[in-house]
Design goal:
mainly alpha; MetI-like fold; 354 residues
């Protein structure tokens, strides 16, 4: 186990390197970077058209630079750190990232680490609450489906699970907004934001109510879009245990079905479900959160990354990418370790797993 963990930890370094390298190359060739945007703003301020100005250099790499002098373009490139070759910029970025220094946002004028720290509580609260609710819904539902496999309840809920599994969470989010947040029907919940404008003036009890009032629709959307997979996992985990020999032996001793289920089967069947928690968190944080935060305008890491992509705010893009990738790799490692702790028959070291 120790050797396997060491290998996985060492593999995090080249994985992060290649992910950052690929994305660095992509953003370098993508049009509309911060230098081009700054040039366009400077042209608009000076009243120069993008195609005007006979004194402009026609050999400039930036199309928007045709109306500005070479000196002005050089100052703008230096302001955003584009006055050096791409390999040099990438190397400097790697050295900074080794000490978790992600630089300063081009457009928000704040250190990226500060921005990530400010947005983290929103994403964490959304992810943790939704994970808790998904487990509270999926585990009892999966157990009941396992006990009534092939019966009416199992067949009728399977249709709902198929819909929840196939339809993304953001589709449910849009539907909830249309029906319950000022769309064509009811206006029971706020359209966006995590708290009301007068949140600071509320009492602590009203603050709690206001917080959950704003979180209701995002959490419902994430639970509906994420409970199906865990329900199936719980169901088939319990069905596998119910067919084992020790269950038949317990029943032959005259134990009640509830005693057999919760005294013997539950502990063994839940091991695989608990071990899958880190994997579930990856999907919730890095897929569900992103779209939910954008749709409901929740000021978290997902919305921050989305806005950074729109603005070509490269320090924020790479900072959020680095954080998401690192968290994802660590959570997957934790998931693998839990599997081996729960089931000693799984031995990654003996299989030479990488």
């Amino acid at each position: 186990m120790g050797l396997y963990i060491l290998k996985r930890l060492l593999l995090i370094i080249p994985t992060l390197f290649f992910i950052l390298l690929i994305n660095f190359i992509v953003v370098q060739i993508a049009p509309g970077g911060p230098v081009e945007q700054a040039i366009q703003q400077a042209e608009a301020f000076q009243g120069i058209g993008a195609t005007g100005g006979e004194t402009a250099s026609t050999q400039s790499h930036y199309e928007g630079a045709k109306g500005l002098s070479e000196e002005m373009v050089a100052k703008i490139k230096a302001q955003y750190g584009f006055d050096e070759p791409a390999p040099t910029r990438f190397w400097n970025m790697l050295k900074s990232y080794a000490s978790f220094d992600f630089g300063t946002s081009f457009f928000k004028d704040k250190p990226v680490t500060q921005l990530l720290w400010e947005k983290m509580p929103v994403s964490l609260s959304l992810g943790l609450w939704s994970t808790l609710l998904i487990y509270l819904v999926s585990i009892p539902l999966g157990i009941k489906k396992a006990r009534q496999h092939g019966m009416f309840f199992d067949k009728s809920t399977s249709m709902l699970l198929a819909i929840g599994y196939a339809v993304p969470a953001f589709i449910f989010a849009v539907l909830l907004i249309v029906f319950f947040a000022g769309g064509s029907y009811f206006q029971w919940f706020p359209l966006q934001g995590l708290v009301s404008d007068n949140f600071q003036s509320l009492s602590w009890l009203d603050k709690i109510k206001d917080y959950f009032w704003h979180m209701t629709l995002p959490l419902i959307a994430m639970v509906i879009g994420g409970f199906a997979g865990l329900t199936y996992l719980t169901k088939y985990s319990f069905m596998e245990e119910l067919n084992k020999q020790y269950v038949l032996a317990a029943r032959s001793k005259g134990l009640t079905e509830s005693r057999v289920l919760y005294g013997h089967v539950f502990r063994n069947a839940m091991l695989i479900v608990i071990a899958g928690l880190p994997e579930a968190l990856i999907g919730i944080f890095f897929v569900g959160n992103l779209f939910i935060e954008i749709i409901f305008n929740l000021d978290g890491l997902g919305l921050l990354g989305f806005e950074a992509i729109q603005q070509r705010d490269y320090p924020v893009i790479f900072g959020t990418l680095f954080l998401f990738t690192l968290m994802g790799l660590i959570l997957r490692l934790i998931s693998d370790v839990l599997y081996q702790v729960i089931d000693p028959r799984i031995n990654f070291d003996s299989r030479g797993a990488e």
